[in-house]
Specification:
minor pseudopilin epsh fold, Four Helix Bundle (Hemerythrin (Met), subunit A), binds manganese (III) ion
């Protein structure tokens, strides 16, 4: 090996190790930009203190603990949430709790009358007719959420605004949620957020919270969400038909790779139907192109051909070669969707 190359490799490995070390997981409580008593008239200091230093701290501690030895170790908080269906309850509740509260502290402020950006204000009026009706919708989502949870304003994959709510510490980034999008405003409706001052009167807490809303921060989050590559990821992640095809494909292709053709013999009709289902699905805007449609047509044609060969009981090597062809077409499709 040439000296220059081995030096480059050495530097590469040094940084790889350094990076692993730096990213070794240890989530921490974000600093508050105000005092506990900053919202006294609307949210009392004791609630703020317990909420932040006890509840949020517990989510952080329990998240760090739950991640040790899990497949989510060393992932970013966003990546953990996006794949939350593959985690257990401890990671789901505590990763959600950490993300949701971090956002919540940011969108509160003791500053009076913060202003919405022109862009966000225009979009709110376009979608909800007025800022007041947005507040009403959010309060409705919050007050009808049974038990504990959150009400959200999100930017959806097609760059629209939407109000939704989630139970417990779930949020709209999570792949278990029906409404997907990037949250730009979240209201905590767990009793720990208001009980000391408002007891069972969730509605009074919900009216009060607008007095401490940081519209400048919400506007910043709106601008950032519009530019975020996460939006395209969320759009593709909601394309169920391709996930369904992928599932059958990988459960039949991988055994075939190691010589076991039984799974594809049993499921060739299922694979063909999944391809047809993909063809009739609504293509996400970001991948909707003539090229994509040609590839999906080819996928249907090849899956159909494979199914016919299985029915004719053709020899394993022939079936395997055809399955590899189907797999190649599928790869071209996923390459476009990345
Ligand atoms: Mn809370």
């Amino acid at each position: 090996m040439k000296k220059a190359t081995s030096l480059k490799l050495g530097i590469f490995f040094f940084f790889t190790i350094l990076l692993n070390f730096v990213s070794a997981q240890n989530f921490t409580l974000p600093k508050l930009k105000y005092e506990y008593k900053a919202f006294e008239a609307y949210i009392d200091a004791q609630t703020m203190e317990i909420h932040y230093s006890k509840h949020h701290q517990a989510y952080v501690n329990n998240l760090n603990k739950a991640l040790i030895g899990s497949k989510f170790e060393n992932k970013t908080l966003e990546d953990i949430l996006l794949g939350i269906s593959r985690s257990g309850d401890a990671i789901r509740n505590n990763a959600g709790g950490h993300y949701n509260h971090s956002l919540f502290w940011e969108i509160l402020t003791p500053k009076k009358d913060t202003k919405l950006s022109e862009d966000l204000q225009a979009e709110i009026i376009k979608t909800f007719t007025s800022v007041d009706s947005l507040k009403k919708l959010l309060n409705q989502a919050a007050s009808t959420r049974f038990g504990s949870g959150w009400a959200w304003l999100i930017v959806t994959p097609d760059k629209k605004l939407q109000v939704c709510s989630t139970p417990n510490q779930d949020n709209p980034l999570m792949d278990i949620n029906v409404d997907r999008g990037i949250p730009i405003l979240g209201i905590d409706v767990w009793e720990h957020a208001y009980y000391l001052k408002y007891q069972n009167k969730r509605g009074d807490y919900l009216s009060a919270i607008w007095n401490v809303m940081n519209w400048e921060e919400v506007s910043k989050k709106y601008e950032a969400a519009l530019k975020s590559p996460l939006l395209q990821f969320l759009e593709l992640d909601s394309w169920k038909a391709i996930k369904d095809f992928h599932k059958v494909m990988s459960e039949t292709f991988h055994p075939a790779e190691s010589g076991d053709l039984e799974p594809i013999k049993e499921r060739s009709s299922e694979l063909m139907l999944a391809a047809l289902n993909l063809k009739s699905s609504n293509l996400p805007k970001s991948v909707d192109s003539p090229e994509m449609k040609v590839l999906i047509d080819e996928l249907v044609k090849e899956s159909n051909a494979l199914h016919k060969m299985v029915k004719k009981k053709l020899k394993d090597p022939i079936l395997k070669a055809k399955l590899f062809e189907v797999h190649d077409v599928f790869h071209k499709i996923t390459a476009i969707s990345k």
